[in-house]
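Journal club side-thread
Mid-discussion, someone asked how the predicted structure for our own chain would compare to the paper's figures. Pasting it here so we can look after the session.
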Amino acid sequence: MNFQCAVLRGTLAWAALATVAMSLMLPRVAAAETLTADTGINWDLSALQVTADCKRELDRARAGIRTIGMRDVSVPFGEGLGAIEETLSVLQDTLSAQVFLSQAAVSKEVRDASAQCNDDVSAFSVEVSADPAVFALAQAAVKIAVTPEEQQLSKIYVENGRRAAAGLDAAPRAKVQKLLNQINTLQIKFGRVLAEDKSEIRLSPAELGSLPASLDGALKKDARGARLPVNESTFSQFLSNEASGAARLRYEVAYGRRGGLKNVQLLRQAVALRKQVATDLGFPSWAAYQLDTKMAKTPETAENLVLEVDRALRGKARQEIAVLSELKRASGDKSPFVRSDYLYFENQLLKSRYAVDDEIVRPYFPVDKTLPAMLTVYAKLLGVRFEPLEPAMAWAPGVTEFAIYDGVSGAPIGWFFFDLYPREGKYNHFAAFQLRPGRALANGEYRKPVAAIVGNWPAPEPGKPTLLSHDDLVTVFHEFGHIMHETLSLTRFGSLFGPNTRSDFPEAPSQMLENWMWRPEILKRISSHTGSGEPLPDDLIAKMIALKHVDDGVAWCRQALYAEFDLQLHGKQVPADMTRLWFALAPKLTPFHEVPGTYPEAGFIHVMSGLDAGYYGYLWSRVFAQDMFSAFAHEGLDNPAVGQRYRSEILVPGGAAEPEVLLRRFLGREVSFEPFYEDLGISRH
């Protein structure tokens, strides 16, 4: 999480553009410097070290904040709010590993100690935001801030203070602070339960017959068949290829029960506490509280977009399911079409009508060839250079590490890691993590950022590379867009670095970059058949691209369900039964009823990891993504002028300016919704 801003999420970034560096009055880095694998973060920590480090650094930061808070509000910016920011930035730098290891450490003891550290740091973040002395310094800083970045930082601290009850009397302030701490604790517990979930299903020898070889590494075979873990790494491949409807349904039920009733209860408690915080601070709902400082501003604005998209695509979704239902009947199965049938018969449709077999596509994307090729695309687009660092200095075997340099000056920028395969207890989705934001140091140097992608592709068989599907490519290209936002920014303050901006905007840059994975010239460039080394043939590329909108109806209606459930969950009336709410919304917004016997909210990690009352942001930010992409579509995907403009106007400033301002600078005009609707084939006239 972002230590400085308890209610803001973010990522990192840097860019060595001289004009920007001069305008921000930030230090430059000598181009001759070469980065080693040592990021300055020690990943080799025991549980005892994590606990001791966390306590020591929190005590130090707490004492520092207390001392600064005793100063008169008339002190210069650097001695008041600037000093607060520096103290919190040092804490974040020092505890980078101690907080992150809860997501990825090999040792359960270390993960548990890190989770506790994360909880303690979150509580301290709330404490600082609610501190009346810090709030007073922030209010004073608004009046004396000189640079635009100082002004933006001051505004953010004032917003956080107001939202943490810093302006209230001692008793109500203490109550809100206690509630926010309890919410943080519940969120951390929810994530750990899901990460350590060991759900699996048993498959008979007959049921194994239709599964692709790419799943062999995940199967635990024995004389009776095999056991298959039920998680993000197996979801798509299993449900797309398993011929047995009974086996698919068993998997779907197990997947929908991940996290269990324990997570249902944790979420229920968190929602109730959030409602109480909102009420105590004068908001009608947690959604209103959350959106007060986002681009959408109000829950009504967010919900209007969600429902408009759903209404426009619901008919298409029904048509898509009608086609798949006919395929199911033609196969001899006359049973009703259910959600666990969807991926399997969609895959059959792709093979028959579109002549695209995912298992034929995969050999063209071996991870050892495709990832380097993807990096080449990004390097050319954004004017940077990536260098592998071996051996990596990381938190687990198999993690790879890279250094980033500016492509023109050669100046070092920062580091990123790839941690791409499942481990027990590891974060079980696919995401980019901000490990350390960049920022200006008091000695004139610049602290370089560090970021990581943590993923869960199926583990390869010994001696063979993992083979990626087109969906895998879209996902990793998207997440690497976050890495670029998390490493190509250049701000004075860590709190404003990269995606540390309005939390319904950071998905936009990455969503924009997904478009590259649907362009023939890019797919040609990053493909290399694992046997022949040949790129994707033109006819297969054409067939793949023809699929871009084949499931828009089902896919976006499902996104609308997630967003609407989230907004209603955090609305004016807290639902008495969250599972019942989900089951009621599903048939209204999508072509499916939910699977009986499941509780999907138990695995809905987004509403317990910073996107509570914020899932709509995936739709909201897509509007900006497609509008930004229109500039590349018009001027060229590899146009260096557009790439540099995107880097300097969107990535470099991070949260130092409001997203609307960044978009206006990049586009040269106000944002238009039309490219978004055109991409989805929606007519608004």
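Post-session note: Residues 299-330 form the longest helix (32 residues).
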